[in-house]
Protein backbone atom coordinates (compact mmCIF):
# COMPACT_ATOMS: atom_id res chain seq x y z
CA UNK A 1 0.00 0.00 0.00
CA UNK A 2 2.79 2.45 0.85
CA UNK A 3 4.54 1.54 -2.36
CA UNK A 4 1.39 2.30 -4.37
CA UNK A 5 0.98 5.69 -2.68
CA UNK A 6 4.63 6.52 -3.26
CA UNK A 7 4.31 5.54 -6.91
CA UNK A 8 1.15 7.61 -7.34
CA UNK A 9 2.83 10.69 -5.82
CA UNK A 10 5.75 10.14 -8.18
CA UNK A 11 3.41 9.93 -11.20
CA UNK A 12 1.53 13.03 -10.11
CA UNK A 13 4.76 15.03 -9.68
CA UNK A 14 5.92 13.90 -13.10
CA UNK A 15 2.68 14.23 -15.07
CA UNK A 16 0.38 16.65 -13.28
CA UNK A 17 -1.61 17.61 -10.23
CA UNK A 18 -4.66 15.46 -10.86
CA UNK A 19 -5.13 11.77 -11.40
CA UNK A 20 -6.76 12.62 -14.74
CA UNK A 21 -3.50 14.27 -15.83
CA UNK A 22 -1.61 11.12 -14.90
CA UNK A 23 -4.03 8.92 -16.84
CA UNK A 24 -3.98 11.24 -19.85
CA UNK A 25 -0.19 11.17 -20.01
CA UNK A 26 0.11 7.48 -19.27
CA UNK A 27 -2.28 6.23 -21.94
CA UNK A 28 0.44 5.00 -24.27
CA UNK A 29 0.76 1.70 -22.46
CA UNK A 30 -1.94 -0.48 -20.94
CA UNK A 31 0.68 -1.81 -18.55
CA UNK A 32 1.27 1.70 -17.29
CA UNK A 33 -2.48 2.24 -16.80
CA UNK A 34 -2.44 -0.93 -14.69
CA UNK A 35 -0.10 0.92 -12.32
CA UNK A 36 -3.08 3.10 -11.42
CA UNK A 37 -5.54 0.26 -10.85
CA UNK A 38 -7.41 0.67 -7.60
CA UNK A 39 -6.25 4.22 -6.89
CA UNK A 40 -9.25 6.03 -8.30
CA UNK A 41 -11.78 4.54 -5.90
CA UNK A 42 -9.70 5.47 -2.86
CA UNK A 43 -8.46 8.94 -3.73
CA UNK A 44 -10.75 10.43 -6.37
CA UNK A 45 -13.86 12.53 -5.88
CA UNK A 46 -16.85 12.27 -8.18
CA UNK A 47 -15.52 15.10 -10.30
CA UNK A 48 -12.10 13.50 -10.43
CA UNK A 49 -13.63 10.23 -11.58
CA UNK A 50 -15.49 12.15 -14.30
CA UNK A 51 -12.22 13.70 -15.46
CA UNK A 52 -10.55 10.28 -15.47
CA UNK A 53 -13.35 9.09 -17.73
CA UNK A 54 -12.85 12.16 -19.93
CA UNK A 55 -9.11 11.43 -20.16
CA UNK A 56 -9.73 7.80 -21.05
CA UNK A 57 -12.37 8.70 -23.64
CA UNK A 58 -10.00 11.31 -25.08
CA UNK A 59 -7.44 8.59 -25.67
CA UNK A 60 -9.99 6.08 -26.93
CA UNK A 61 -11.53 8.62 -29.29
CA UNK A 62 -8.38 9.18 -31.30
CA UNK A 63 -9.68 6.68 -33.87
CA UNK A 64 -13.39 7.25 -33.26
CA UNK A 65 -14.32 9.35 -36.29
CA UNK A 66 -18.03 9.18 -36.94
CA UNK A 67 -18.83 8.14 -33.37
CA UNK A 68 -20.78 10.11 -30.77
CA UNK A 69 -19.46 10.48 -27.24
CA UNK A 70 -21.92 11.38 -24.49
CA UNK A 71 -20.83 12.96 -21.21
CA UNK A 72 -23.29 13.40 -18.37
CA UNK A 73 -22.20 14.90 -15.06
CA UNK A 74 -18.61 15.37 -16.28
CA UNK A 75 -18.77 18.64 -14.33
CA UNK A 76 -19.62 16.98 -10.99
CA UNK A 77 -17.48 18.40 -8.20
CA UNK A 78 -15.46 20.78 -10.36
CA UNK A 79 -15.51 24.47 -11.16
CA UNK A 80 -13.40 27.45 -12.13
CA UNK A 81 -10.11 26.74 -13.88
CA UNK A 82 -10.59 22.97 -13.86
CA UNK A 83 -14.01 23.32 -15.54
CA UNK A 84 -12.42 25.49 -18.22
CA UNK A 85 -9.77 22.83 -18.87
CA UNK A 86 -12.43 20.11 -19.08
CA UNK A 87 -14.42 22.32 -21.48
CA UNK A 88 -11.37 22.75 -23.71
CA UNK A 89 -10.73 19.00 -23.74
CA UNK A 90 -14.35 18.37 -24.75
CA UNK A 91 -14.09 21.04 -27.46
CA UNK A 92 -10.89 19.42 -28.78
CA UNK A 93 -12.56 16.00 -28.87
CA UNK A 94 -15.46 17.54 -30.80
CA UNK A 95 -13.05 18.34 -33.61
CA UNK A 96 -12.80 14.57 -34.28
CA UNK A 97 -16.34 13.36 -33.54
CA UNK A 98 -19.69 14.45 -32.17
CA UNK A 99 -19.71 15.16 -28.43
CA UNK A 100 -22.87 15.59 -26.41
CA UNK A 101 -22.31 16.99 -22.94
CA UNK A 102 -24.85 17.66 -20.22
CA UNK A 103 -23.43 20.42 -18.03
CA UNK A 104 -24.48 23.00 -15.50
CA UNK A 105 -21.23 24.96 -15.72
CA UNK A 106 -20.82 28.05 -17.89
CA UNK A 107 -17.11 27.31 -18.36
CA UNK A 108 -18.02 24.10 -20.20
CA UNK A 109 -21.19 25.34 -21.95
CA UNK A 110 -19.37 28.35 -23.39
CA UNK A 111 -16.97 26.04 -25.28
CA UNK A 112 -19.70 24.30 -27.29
CA UNK A 113 -20.19 24.71 -31.03
CA UNK A 114 -23.93 24.36 -30.54
CA UNK A 115 -25.84 24.95 -27.32
CA UNK A 116 -29.07 23.16 -26.51
CA UNK A 117 -31.20 23.89 -23.49
CA UNK A 118 -33.47 21.41 -21.75
CA UNK A 119 -36.54 22.79 -19.99
CA UNK A 120 -38.99 20.84 -17.86
CA UNK A 121 -42.51 22.05 -17.23
CA UNK A 122 -45.27 20.73 -15.03
CA UNK A 123 -48.80 21.44 -16.24
CA UNK A 124 -51.83 19.92 -14.55
CA UNK A 125 -49.64 17.36 -12.80
CA UNK A 126 -47.91 16.26 -16.00
CA UNK A 127 -44.21 16.86 -16.61
CA UNK A 128 -43.03 17.60 -20.13
CA UNK A 129 -39.52 18.16 -21.39
CA UNK A 130 -38.55 20.47 -24.22
CA UNK A 131 -35.16 20.64 -25.92
CA UNK A 132 -34.26 23.63 -28.03
CA UNK A 133 -31.25 24.90 -29.97
CA UNK A 134 -30.14 28.36 -28.86
CA UNK A 135 -29.15 31.10 -31.27
CA UNK A 136 -26.17 33.35 -30.47
CA UNK A 137 -28.04 35.83 -28.28
CA UNK A 138 -30.02 33.12 -26.47
CA UNK A 139 -26.77 31.30 -25.84
CA UNK A 140 -25.20 34.33 -24.18
CA UNK A 141 -28.34 34.73 -22.07
CA UNK A 142 -28.21 31.06 -20.96
CA UNK A 143 -24.50 31.23 -20.08
CA UNK A 144 -25.26 34.43 -18.14
CA UNK A 145 -28.04 32.60 -16.28
CA UNK A 146 -25.60 29.80 -15.48
CA UNK A 147 -23.19 32.41 -14.12
CA UNK A 148 -25.62 34.53 -12.17
CA UNK A 149 -28.61 32.44 -11.25
CA UNK A 150 -32.26 33.29 -11.69
CA UNK A 151 -31.75 37.05 -11.98
CA UNK A 152 -29.47 37.81 -14.90
CA UNK A 153 -27.57 41.09 -14.60
CA UNK A 154 -25.83 43.15 -17.25
CA UNK A 155 -22.51 42.20 -15.64
CA UNK A 156 -23.34 38.49 -16.02
CA UNK A 157 -24.26 39.09 -19.68
CA UNK A 158 -20.96 40.90 -20.34
CA UNK A 159 -19.07 38.06 -18.67
CA UNK A 160 -21.03 35.46 -20.66
CA UNK A 161 -20.33 37.29 -23.96
CA UNK A 162 -16.62 37.37 -23.10
CA UNK A 163 -16.57 33.66 -22.19
CA UNK A 164 -18.23 32.68 -25.48
CA UNK A 165 -15.93 35.00 -27.42
CA UNK A 166 -12.81 33.59 -25.76
CA UNK A 167 -13.96 30.04 -26.45
CA UNK A 168 -13.98 30.88 -30.15
CA UNK A 169 -10.49 32.38 -30.11
Note the topology.
Elements: H1 2-15, H2 19-25, H3 30-34, H4 39-43, H5 46-60, E1 68-72, H6 80-93, E2 98-102, H7 106-109, E3 116-123, E4 126-133, H8 136-148, H9 154-168
Parallel strand pairs: 1-2
Antiparallel strand pairs: 3-4
Helix pairs in contact: 1-2, 2-5, 8-9
Tell me the Rg in angstroms.
Answer: 18 Å
Order of helices and strands: HHHHHEHEHEEHH
Low-confidence stretches: 17-43
By oligomeric state, this entry counts as single chain
User: What about the largest sheet?
Assistant: 2 strands, parallel
Number of helices: 9
Mind explaining what this structure looks like?
This protein is α+β, with helices and mostly antiparallel strands. The protein is 54% helix and 15% strand. It contains 9 helices and 4 strands. It has helices spanning 2-15, 19-25, 30-34, 39-43, 46-60, 80-93, 106-109, 136-148, 154-168, and strands at residues 68-72, 98-102, 116-123, 126-133. It has a two-stranded parallel sheet with strand order 1-2. Strands 3-4 form a two-stranded antiparallel ribbon. A hairpin with a 2-residue loop joins strand 3 and strand 4. The radius of gyration is 18 Å and the shape is globular.
Amino acid sequence: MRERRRRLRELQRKYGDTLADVVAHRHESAARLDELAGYEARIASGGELSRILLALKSVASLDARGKTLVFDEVDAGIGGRVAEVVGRKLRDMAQRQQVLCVTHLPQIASMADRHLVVRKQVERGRTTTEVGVLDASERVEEVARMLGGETVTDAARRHAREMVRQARA
